[in-house]
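Subject: sequence -> structure tokens, single chain

Hey, anyone have a minute? Need the predicted structure for the following. Not urgent.
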Amino acid sequence: MPRFKKLKKNLTNWFTHPWYPIAFSAYPALALLAANAGQVQLSAGNRALAISILLSALIYFLSWLIMRQTHRAAFLSLLLLILFFTYGHGHNLLLEKYPDDNIDAWLTGIWGFLFLLALVLATRSRFNYDAVASSLNVIALALIVVSGWQISSQSTPGHTYSLGAENAPVQEDLVRVENPADVYFFLLDSYGREDGLFDAYRYDNSSFIQELEERGFYIADCSQSNYVRTDVSLASSLNMMYLQDLGEAFKPETTARRTLWNSLKHSAVRYNFESLGYKTINFATGFDWLELRDADIFLTPEPFYSGLSEFEDLLLRSTLARYIQDWGWVDPDAVMGQVFRDRFNNIFDHIGDIARMPEPTFAYIHVISPHPPFVFDAVGNPTYPPDFWNEDRKYPPDLYAAGYQNQLTHLNTKILEAIDTILAESETPPIIILQGDHGPWLQPKNKRMWILNAYFLPGHNDALYPTISPVNSFRFVFNSYFGGHYDLLEDVSYFSPVPQLFEFSEIPNDCNK
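Reply:
Had a minute. Here:
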């Protein structure tokens, strides 16, 4: 009992000290991590969190130097930090309500007045700052705890040999033959079908298609994606089922994505291959929900430390420091472009290494291209991402079309080089699937479903058909190579709006080739 009283006294004393400015400074980074849980790694916030805490400590110290009163300095520090971290939110709010006004001038006046008010409150008021320290400490700590709970509750835990969806159609009696084929699944984000590219942009992709056919690929030239966005499309492809049948978490009224993302990370396809003794290989994309970081081999480029990360840029824009880009101190958009180029090049730099591995491998290779941001021209030179969007950071149709075609041309070159490397380095003819998850943006609903769908399946191409869709791709592979007994499903395409991801309406396949 005395020990408990001593602990209680120590805890009470600890809460009387004014450490709330330091605790509060951690909240913006943690809250942003919570809002983007599942999309970025927790480590993305490390540097932002450290800098925020150091900034608060500096402001606290300077305030103390001026006032020489700890509690009064703490209160002033808190007010100044609130002004700093909320500036960008105020900017966005005013911009949304008054898009044609001089927002910067308005904000300068408002925040200048609030700054003077904070100084008056902290220096001239007779307010008892000692008395509020405990309450402000509790509030600051509560904000951190709530953010931490949100981050942990939205994280997607799991490990190999687990499944993310209750009805994932695994088969335990698949057979691994002697000298099994390596499997390469290239998911080419937003890669449209040949006829759709010509209709939308007058882009002639026939030479690339011909090059694939000359290498032995079957082109499903009437293929459509089963869904219209990346996460719902891939969760279906990698689980070989329509989401409507994959579990209770995919009902129309549901908007949460945790089970969706977990089913993508820990899919039936991955389970089947790992049960057969295959090593899973995956590459960094910058989107946590797309990454299999617990794969046998996870390849990521060297960290790019010369500028801000995408997460740091997002946090920066919410603060008073948003103007450092305008002042030319840093260029987050240039940094973002370099990071995307590094991830793209990381994939194609390692293709030969994967092909030379002695173990059978399942390489799930998600390439964020020709999907924006547009960071390459047609021959692979760097481009500046903001050149393709307007002042609202949105893509006008003409700029999107230009960036998309450039990036597509460069991607085609790299894909053909990768295929030639794989074929040259593979002792057993490999299995290769090139597949779009959906078509280009800014297209009608039906044409957003038109995708590239190409298969290199030695000895089995003749059984493929023009309208085969991603939901059947691995059903066909497991049946043809591993003794599977999956029924091929009807090939159907579904559109769903945001945020009602699972409120589906059917899009017919009107291909008449």
